[in-house]
Amino acid sequence: xxxxxxxxQELRAGRLSRRDFLQAATVLGFGAVAPTILSRxxxxxxxxxxxxxxxxxxxxxxxxxxxxxxxxxxxxGTSFARFNxxxxxxxxxxxxxxxxxxxxxSPDAKVWTFKLRSGIExxxxxxxxxxDVVNSFNHHRGEESxxxxxxxxxxxxxxxxxxxxxxxxxxxxxxxxxxFLVSDYHIPIIPTKDGALxxxxxxxxxxxxxxxxxxGVRMTFTRNPNxxxxxxxxxxxxxxxxxxxxxxxxxxxxxxxIDLMDRCDIKTxxxxxxxxxxxxxEISGNGHYTIPMRTKLAPFDDNNIRMxxxxxxxxxxxxxxVLSGHGAVGNDHPIGRGQRYFASELEQxxxxxxxxxxxxKQAGLDTIEVDLSxxxxxxxxxxxxxxLYKEHAAAAGITIxxxxxxxxxxxxxxxxxxxxxxxxxxxxxxxxxxxMFATAYAEGAEWNESDWSNARFxxxxxxxxxxxxxxxxxxxxxxxxxxxxNDCGSVxxxxxxxxxxxxxxxxxxxxxxxxxxxxxxxxxxxxWFA
Amino acid sequence: xxxxxxxxxLLTLFVVSVIIFLAVGMLPGDAAQAMLGQAxxxxxxxxxxxxMGLDQPAPVRYFHWLMGILxxxxxxxxANGREISELIGGRFANTIFLAVFAAVISxxxxxxxxxxxxxxxxxxxxxxxxxVTLSSISTPEFFVAYILILFISVQWGLFPSLAxxxxxxxxxxxxxxxxxxxxxxxxxxxxHMMRMTRAAIINLLASPYIEMANLKGISKRKIITHHxxxxxxxxxxxxxxxxxxxxxxxxxxxxxxxVYPGLxxxxxxxxxxxxxxxxxxxxxxxxxxxxxLNLTADILSILTNPRLLHPx
Lengths: 530, 312
Known about the structure:
The complex is a heterodimer of chains A (530) and B (312).
Chain A: H1 3-12, H2 18-27, H3 34-38, E1 51-56, H4 73-82, E2 87-89, E3 95-97, E4 100-105, E5 111-116, H5 130-138, H6 150-153, E6 156-161, E7 166-171, H7 178-181, E8 192-193, E9 196-197, E10 208-214, E11 218-223, E12 237-242, H8 246-254, E13 260-261, H9 269-272, E14 278-292, H10 303-311, H11 315-322, E15 327-329, H12 353-362, E16 368-374, H13 382-394, E17 398-404, H14 410-413, E18 425-427, H15 433-440, H16 455-466, H17 470-487, E19 490-503, E20 506-507, H18 517-520, H19 523-526, E21 528-529
Parallel strand pairs in A: 1-12, 1-13, 16-17
Antiparallel strand pairs in A: 2-3, 4-5, 5-7, 6-7, 8-9, 10-11, 11-12, 13-19, 14-18, 14-19, 15-19, 20-21
Helix pairs in contact in A: 1-2, 10-12, 11-13, 16-17
Chain B: H1 2-26, H2 31-36, H3 42-52, H4 58-70, H5 84-119, H6 124-138, H7 141-155, H8 171-177, H9 179-205, H10 208-216, H11 220-249, H12 252-258, H13 263-272, H14 276-304
Helix pairs in contact in B: 1-14, 5-6, 5-9, 5-11, 6-9, 7-9, 7-12, 9-11, 11-14, 12-13, 13-14
């Protein structure tokens, strides 16, 4: 392919702005013909048709269709392919209504009224009603619920309907972010059959209709002919294949057997980029790695020790080695740079053995020896990261004993319990500050992985949640990030980019959402063949 | 004789089932925890455990399971509630298909190469075949697979790198898609069978009756095919059957590299998710495959050499 054709494809695919295209074309010596390319009408509307195949690294034979069990990129992807939600995080990371047309809150943010779009049909022709919404939420609520979304719906004390198109949620405490929470992939709106939620049929109101499903192998779809959204769902057919092995995924993309691969191998990324028919794309999201210390266990119960360890890590070196630069350094709190209330004024923590020594002194120590549990189950490269940490910390008189744990059983026996004082972990990131803090940093939260409790932090969290004034909210979240950075048990060394690759014929709008990988997992709905 | 072997086989299966059950029970964590992954809270895990019957003691669970199997009911996957027979059925057929495909290529090839190697032993041909097959067996199979993919699929575009078959894939397309995995397996198993054929024949060539045939002036080729080979079948059959069993139970790596939906991948997934009934069913099927194939090997050996019926 000539360089100009490639540029043109980049432009059509929305990966290159018109200005960049003109510049690049001029550099290549095609300045004269470039404007004619720009004037071609094909850029205007996305093309319809074709069969799009995605090769996804997650997915297991034990997966179920029950949305309460969705926890991997495959099942999450099928959720966005088949279903709609009350709200959506769009390609610009803005919250927009999906099945909900509009919503409003009571002044204390406790009562939320959602007005639904009318006349929307499920794949089987049944019309969606407010009762379906209530049932879809109730599926995750209650004592008996085994849903992974239980913590999200737990604060809902009551759901009622007002006619066929209005649903009213009453919360135990005010929550200004509630409309964000209902965009969660666990809570799609599913039809009701004989009084029970009919998740087993796989039917929803979404862009694609499930045709066949073999857990751990594939799901196939056809376009929903009655899809209610304008300008979405361009492919005629789609298929999602589980390809667990990253080399197999890369091969399949190289040979054109799939159009999208997720989770590219960072170590061989530069080789993949050489292929002229492949485009590698990165999204800097909120996903991050953490190294939580159990703050109730010695020696981590002393904040001086925690601070010493936070200063004893060279994050930049870690970024270069573990992620080959595909990410950003973290500042010991879980809020990403792209989030609404990210504390840009907070100074970035750097590698400083002297500071680490100072904090050790404060704790009355000259040297210290600690165990650090690690496994590549936490994230690819966690074992390497632990070794690097050990090297860095040695300069501050800190001896880290790296303990390699088996990947099998890592999440039950090592992470988030008092068997181990210090280990590695990762988070997919959450679209709102409150969601992230409440999940992993609030006192008493199930996944408070460092077993941290800070009275001021918890107080601020409750206040900020129901605060509807933007400026005041921002102030509170900045303070929370500061407290987190200076007191919490988690070292947050890195934010990782989501990296996927597609064939050059795949196109999408200029931006992609960063709430999840692969354009918020809405690739089937949003992308098209150029 | 046959009945004795059959009952020994059944006993083996029973012992294997107990071992599988105990071994699986020793794995850390359980299905409820593995299913919810990092997203598990104590509360949800407890609720799920109760729903799955995981709170009952192990002997009770074993007994229920064994009774079910005897009635032909493997039970349901505790991870997604699907019938295990349905879950395993299609995948077992895929595994058998790939094994048969690989066997159809590799067994005749190995025999031919082995006989020729015995015929022209110590020639350049013999050495080349030995070096090539031994190299391919000594290379890890995923590496063989990647090399094949690199050249045959990525560079030359002859065959697809994904063995992405479904229940509705037509036969010819299925052959096309599974060609690379079958070729990989062929490269892995040929050496063993080829060397055994060669060794068994060469071993016999030193016997007095072969010497006699030589003295009679029979051609070398005829000596091997008519006199040596019939007596060499027993060890060759044993090795072939052993490799057939390997083609069925040992191909997880090949399945992963080629994304082939076989039984091995199901077993690995199920172990990771602590889906014990599925793990047990898979292991039992694998054990049964071994027992059955060994039985076949015994019978075939006896057929080719009736003397084995009357041990000294």
